[in-house]
Every structure is written in C-alpha cells, then in structure tokens.
Amino acid sequence: MSATASSKSSSAKRSSQELRRVAISMAGWTVCGLALFMVIGPLLDVVWVVASRGISVFSIGLFTTVTNGTGGGLANAIEGTLVLSAGALLIAVPIGVGAGIYLSEYGNNKIGSSIRFLSDVLTGTPSIVLGYFSYIVFVTSLGWQFSTLAGSITLAILIVPYLARISELALRQVPVSMREAAYALGANDPVVVFKVVLPGALSGVITGVLLALAISVGETAPLIYTAGWSNYMWNGQLTHSPIGYLTYVIWSFINQPSDESHALAFAAAFIVMLVVLCINIGVRMVVKRTKFI
Amino acid sequence: MKLKPFRLSVLGLSLLIPAALCAVVLFLAIYSAQAVSFNGIDFISGITWDLGNLYGDPVTVRGAQVPPGASYGILVFIVGTLLSSFIAILIAVPLSVGAAIFLAEAVPAKIRPVLSLLVELVAVVPSVVFGLWGIAVLIPLIAKYIGPGLSAMLGFIPFFAGGNAGGGYGLLATSMVLALMITPIIATTLLDALLQVPKENRESAFALGATHFEVVSKAMMPMVRTTLVGGIVLALGRALGETMAVLMVSGGAINILPQNIFSPVSTIASFIVSQLDSAEQDPTNMAVRSLAEIALVLFIITLVVNAGAKLLSSGVLNVRNSKQ
Q1: Is residue B106 situated within a structural domain?
Q2: CB–CB of A24 and B124 under 8 A?
C-alpha cells in the first residue's frame, strides 16, 4: 500500500485488490474441482461402459462354452486365468511371505536393506521386460513352449515383491512386546513367527495375497509371451501346451471386425474389472488407508 | 556362533527376489550380446526396423548370421516412448495437482475417503481395460471432436496441425490414456504430503489475511514441491513401461518418426509385444536377440527413472525439515 495515497482511495484500492484476490481464489477452486472431476470422471465412464456393454451379453453359455475364432463363450479363458493366477500364487506366496518374515523379523541390517532396494527395482521393472525374459528362458531356451508353467512363473516374479513388502508391513505391526513375551516363555524362532507374529498379522498377509491375485488377474503383456493362447479348456499339462486367459480376449477380440467378438471382449473386461475392483475396494474398506501401490 | 536354520531358510527365500532380478538382467544381457555387437550404436540412432528377407539364405554381416537386408534401429520407439510419456506428464500434472488440492482442502473430511478411494482405484484398473475403453470411447472422441478442435485452435503450430490423420489412433490418444493411468500416482503422493503439512504453517498464512486458496497455493504447495517432483518421476517410470493400453490405442508406427501429435507411434514396450509373431519367423534368431536388447534398453531407462524417484522421495522429509 502506498503511503502517499489518501486513506479513502487506499481503502477503495484495497477492496478492489481484495475482490481480485477473492475472484482468483474462486477461479482456483473451480479449476481444482474440475481437475478432480476429470480424474474421477473417466474412471466412472470406464466402469459404466465396460459394465453396461459387458453385462448385456451375459448368459449361461458364456461360462460353459469355449471361444472359437470370433465368438463363443469364455469358459476356457476363465479357467485359464484361474489356473495361471493360482499357479502364480502357489509359487509366489511362500517366497513372498518368507521374504516378508525375514525382512520384518531379522532384516534390520545391510542385507535386509539391499533386498528391499532390489525388490523395489523389480517392482519398477515393466512387466513386458519380465515377460520377454521368461520367453527367452522358459519358452525357447528350456523348450517349454507357450505354457501354463512359464506364464505362472512370470506372474509370480511380478507379484513376489508386492507380497514381500505387504507381508513385511503387516508383520511389523505386531507389537515387539508380544515377541518378547513368547521368547521369554522359551519359544524359539519358528514358534514365535508361526504361533505369535504370523497369526497376529494374518489379515495383513491375506490382504497382500488378495492384491497379488488382483494384479495377476489383470496382467496381459507378460502372458502374451509366455502363456500363448488356446481355444480349448486346459488339458492339465504344465509345459508344452498353451493356455487361454481373460485379458487376452480383451485385447485380441476387440480388434476383430465382428460385433460378436467385441461383445466377448467387453464381457471378459467386465469379469476382470469386477474381480480387480472388488478385491481392491474390499481390501481398502477393511484395512485403513495404507499405501500399497 | 550357533547356526539358526529358521533364519537362514527365510533369508534364503528372500534372496530369491534379488536372484530373480539378477537373472532377468543377466539372461537378457547374455541373450542379446550377439545383437549388441551386430547392431552397434546404430541400434539407438537408426530409424529402420527391418527383419530382412526371412526366406532368403542368411548372410554374414559384421560377423553375425542375419537375414539379407536386416536392420534393427529403435530410435522411432525410443522417441515414441519418451514423447508419449512426456506429453502424458504434461497432461497429468495439472490434473493431479488440482485434484489433490481439492481433495485435501475443499472436500469435507467425511467425503474425502470416498473420493480418494475413487482416485486410487484409477490406478488398479488393468491396463488392457483402459485400452479397451480407449478404443471404444476415447478414439472416436478424438477423431470427431478433440483432434479437429485442437487443430482448429493450435493448427498454426505444425505439431498440432493435421486434425484426425490417424482416425484417432496415435500419439494424442496414447498420451491421454497414459495421463489417465498415472494421474492417481501423482495425486495420491501429493495428497499425502498436503495432509502432512503442519497446522501451524496453514494457520500463520491464514493469520496474514490470505484467502484459503492462497494458503494452499502460496504457503502449502511450496512445502511439498520435492514430494511432488518425486511423484511425477515415479509416474514417469510407470508411463515408460506401460504396454497394453499403449499397444491398443497408439496406431503402431514403424520406420517413421512421429510428425505431429496425431501421428501413429510405437513405444518400446508396445513394440516388443507387436513383434512377437514376426520375430519368431527369423531363422537366424537375430530379431529375437534384438528384441531382448530392446527389453534391456527399456529396463535401463525405467531403472534410471525409478532410482531418480527414489532419491527425490527420500527428501519427503522436506515437510518436516521446513518446520524448524
């Protein structure tokens, strides 16, 4: 405020300046609100478009028949996604939870922090790079060809760092005093971990497993190079035979010309989206806002 | 010292994670070694990706067996990757900053968890579902309205001229889908930081007569700047490696650099997927080896970016430091 201005004009000036500041603030809030709308709006539209177009083709046949070249059902793809995800969890859960146990119980040292760092690097590695690694190692070099095992191992590599991190966080929530009490009663390491710490952190560990399941159900890129694609139900073989999965239907059938193929792509997307969103919403309702992403 | 079998066995399990990472890098490096020596520096500077005549007799060039006429240059894909991610960041940053500010300050505390949950859910929708939405909703929108609209407004800049050249598929669609996918990463990082700003700082700004928006923009935002940059770099790392959504909406360019924002593009990740079938036809395997080299390049790029994000986010403490 200039000292030479008369008090009257100064106050008039101030109020016009204030008016400008208030106006700018209002505009700022409007822009911010619009920004939030533009972030959430597309998500709601994704859910709406996929759900409305996906549900419209739901029928019993969708779950009982297999895909053919342009249409059919999704039985083989649903089964394949279940098999691949279950395989990935079978491999990844023991490793991930074991790593979480080490990191939380005995990992406050140099080894622990290097494992944490390298695990973070693995989390940041694009999934297609992991898929290509599996392709050259399992599919071609080991000669497994496109197969269930190659796909499951790739997914396992992808989800193991998440499992390790979430398990570690969950186990660390258990109070130290409980461990001390158990040790004081004469318990040894495995008893303390399996009878005291792990049961106390079970909900957190299950959260991790569910989120890992959501990731593996939604993945596509690494599977294209490892699981291949099959129009038939899984024949029970782990190697030397490709397997179908839901996300493949989404990206491949949407590029087919016929409406029937498009409908199938949306149905597959709806199932995948439903599983992923339900798991994530459920987990976040139960667990307080924790950052896992 | 007493041996502790339980501790050793869980240590063994956790060492499998670094082992997997080392295996990935090692096998990609070994497998691509021949391609690295064959391609040399042209790999990064060349714009021609040509598998050569796959049915012709392989010829020996620079000490390696390759199909006649084969040439592997990935500059097009490097440019496509960097350009699409860069534009995605340009779109995503203002959106996420606005959204985070609105969530932190304007929304009642009761509704905030619901809205921030919605923002977080954007991050968990699978890439391929975004790709599907892109094809079904975004591409027609770009072809009919956004593309011509941009050209009409900014057409005097060559980069924005050309309207809907690719029928909607291309750099703009790729960047928009990527922007949507990385927005929650930046927004949630920033939201957490904003919620941590000490009450004293906000109250002092209010006491000076600042409007609520000025408190946020002039007192709080400067305090969380480092965290914001860390979040942006983290989001960049995600955008660079994104595969399926990009593959579905990018139009897939090969051997031509993007001319404007509507040009079809390929990113490194999407190109690897799109090349699977043709590379397998190569009897000399040089194409598959060159793809391994591309994967290695992508790994190195994301590693550098993520390491940068890590360094920046270790400065998360800046909120607490500035309190003193």
Answers
A1: yes
A2: no
Q: How far apart are CA A225 and CA B268, in angstroms?
A: 15
Q: Which domain holds residue B166?
A: 81-265+306-321
Report how many domains make up chain B: 1
Q: Chain A 261-280, CB below 8 Å of chain B: which residues?
A: 265-266, 269, 272-273, 276-277, 280
Q: What CATH number has the domain bearing residue B92?
A: 1.10.3720.10
Low-confidence ranges of chain B (pLDDT < 70): 1-2, 63, 162-166, 314-324
Asked if residue B146 belongs to a domain, the reply is: yes
Number of other CB atoms surrounding residue A87 within 10 Å: 20
- pTM value is 0.89
- What's the longest Cα–Cα distance across chain B? 81
Residue B14 resides in a domain: no
Using CA of residue A182, residue A188, residue A189, residue A195, what is the dihedral sign? negative
- The closest CB to that of B243, out of A45, A127, A289, belongs to A127
Helices and strands in chain B, H and E counts: 16, 4
Which 8-state DSSP code applies to residue A139?
A: I
What secondary structure, in 3-state letters, does A245-256 show? CHHHHHHHHCCC
Chain B residues in contact with A247 by the CB 8 A cut-off are: 126, 128, 244
Residue range B289-320, pLDDT digits in tens = 888 899 999 999 999 998 888 887 765 444 44
pLDDT digits (tens, 9 = 90+) for B195-205: 988 888 888 98
A2-27 burial, b at 16+ Cβ within 10 Å, e below that, comes to eeeeeeeeeeeeeeeeeeeeeeebee
Asked if residue B133 is part of any domain, the answer here is: yes
- What is the distance in angstroms between the Cα of A150 and the nearest Cα belonging to chain B? 14
Q: Which of residues 71-110 of B touch A (CB under 8 A)?
A: 94-99, 101-103, 106
**Is residue A67 within 8 Å of residue A231, measured between CB atoms?**
yes
Beta carbons of A124 and B6 less than 8 Å apart: no
Do B299 and A281 count as a contact with CB atoms less than 8 A apart? no
Cα B188 to Cα A6: distance, rounded to the nearest angstrom: 49
